[in-house]
Specification:
By secondary structure, this protein is an alpha/beta fold. It is built from 13 helices and 12 strands. It has 2 domains: 169 residues, Rossmann fold (3-Layer(aba) Sandwich), CATH 3.40.50; 172 residues, Dehydroquinate synthase-like - alpha domain (Dehydroquinate synthase-like, alpha domain), CATH 1.20.1090. Strands 1-2-9-6-5-3-4 form a 7-stranded mixed beta sheet, with helices on both faces. The protein has a 3-stranded antiparallel beta sheet with strand order 10-11-12. A two-stranded antiparallel ribbon has the order 7-8. A hairpin with a 4-residue loop joins strand 1 and strand 2. The mean pLDDT is 96. It catalyses: 7-phospho-2-dehydro-3-deoxy-D-arabino-heptonate = 3-dehydroquinate + phosphate. Catalyzes the conversion of 3-deoxy-D-arabino-heptulosonate 7-phosphate (DAHP) to dehydroquinate (DHQ). GO terms for molecular function: 3-dehydroquinate synthase activity; metal ion binding; nucleotide binding.
């Protein structure tokens, strides 16, 4: 088992990674918190698999919210339902909210915890590879608006993150591969050794190390730039075009990992057009090895229009993340007029 600590501006996030960590949740909660009540938020896919087991770990009466599964439910209406359940459960600021699920559950629960009573302790138990290596760590929470992805949110660190790599063995291949997009991202922006690890035929036997290396990179970046004003932007490699593609697809046609894979490939092409080394072939190969798409399925004009709402936009420029060489990410400020030309040429 691995243990990492992320020192945020207002709290320390303890992150446990390893096989069987899920069964240690009550123990770690008792070490970290003293709640009188615990409220668990999960979704309709995860609840039948893990909710009963989790609740049985605690001597307290656990209240729950089960939200519909899917990115299309990551909105303020769903948050309002969680608020109502937390109010009914009479949660106080000394109590605990647990997010049990993938990225959508983690993002929306984190946002609800950050804003209800102006902040309740939160624990993340990510149940997908994508949420284990990315969204459960670092304190970004939020929901989507019709205008774009994650436009409403807050920075709010989970004080406890329990990452059980055994859970990955039960994931459908499609959901597992979705998370591999974020793993590939970490290899591209920081540690190319990760790309070598996942190229091995038996890489799944080494998932504990792969997850640890991915989370360690994110921890190191977030500790230097918790509020996403500089270095943390590099974690968005592939996400600018990826988020735009998700929006054009109405958040239902592409999964997040599929969109990020497409976004990384298009970012590599864009970097080559700007005169950087062309890494397109390497990134395409890594994505295809894990059955991830690499081509934009939508008109580039629609993609450009959608990405104008990206949070990395500043006035008439976009902070666009490129990689050169492999293992080093850089932030390029691209004027919107030039970006329009580059996007429509993809």
């Amino acid at each position: 088992m691995y243990h990492l600590s992320l020192q945020g501006s207002t709290s320390t996030s303890d992150i446990y990674i390893g096989a069987g960590v899920f069964q240690q949740t009550a123990k770690r909660v008792a070490e970290k918190f003293k709640p009188a009540r615990i409220h668990v938020v999960t979704d309709s896919n995860v609840a039948p698999l893990y909710l009963k087991e989790l609740c049985a770990e605690f001597p307290l009466n656990i209240t729950t919210t089960v939200i519909p599964a899917g990115e299309e439910y990551k909105n303020l209406d769903t948050v309002a339902g969680i608020y109502a359940d937390m109010s009914k459960a009479e949660l106080t600021r000394s109590d605990l909210v647990i997010a049990l699920g993938g990225g959508v559950v983690g993002d929306i629960t984190g946002f609800a915890a950050a804003t209800y009573l102006r902040g309740i302790h939160v624990c993340q138990i990510p149940t997908t590879l994508l949420s284990q290596v990315d969204s459960s760590v670092g304190g970004k929470t939020g929901v989507d608006l019709p205008q774009g992805k994650n436009l409403v949110g807050a920075f709010y660190q989970p004080e406890l993150v329990m990452i059980d790599t055994d859970i990955l063995t039960s994931l459908p291949e499609r959901i597992f591969n979705d998370g591999m997009a974020e793993v590939i991202k970490y290899g591209c922006i920081s540690n190319p050794t990760i790309l070598e690890l996942i190229a091995e035929p038996d890489f799944k036997s080494n998932m504990e190390q792969i997850v640890y290396e991915s989370v360690r990179i994110k921890r190191d970046v977030v500790q230097q730039d918790e509020h996403d004003t500089g270095l943390r932007m590099i974690l968005n490699f592939g996400h600018t075009i990826g988020h735009a593609a998700e929006k054009v697809g109405h958040f239902t046609e592409l999964s997040h990992g599929q969109a990020v894979a497409i976004g990384m490939v298009q970012a590599a092409k864009l970097g080559a057009a700007l005169g950087e080394a062309d890494l397109t072939e390497q990134i395409v190969a890594a994505c295809k090895a894990h059955d991830l798409p690499t081509e934009l399925p939508y008109p580039t004009e629609d993609i450009y229009t959608a990405l104008l709402h990206d949070k990395k936009r500043t006035a008439d420029t976009m902070n666009f993340i490129l990689v050169h060489p492999l293992g080093k990410a850089v932030i390029h400020k691209i004027p919107l007029e030039q970006l329009h030309q580059l996007i429509t040429a993809l």
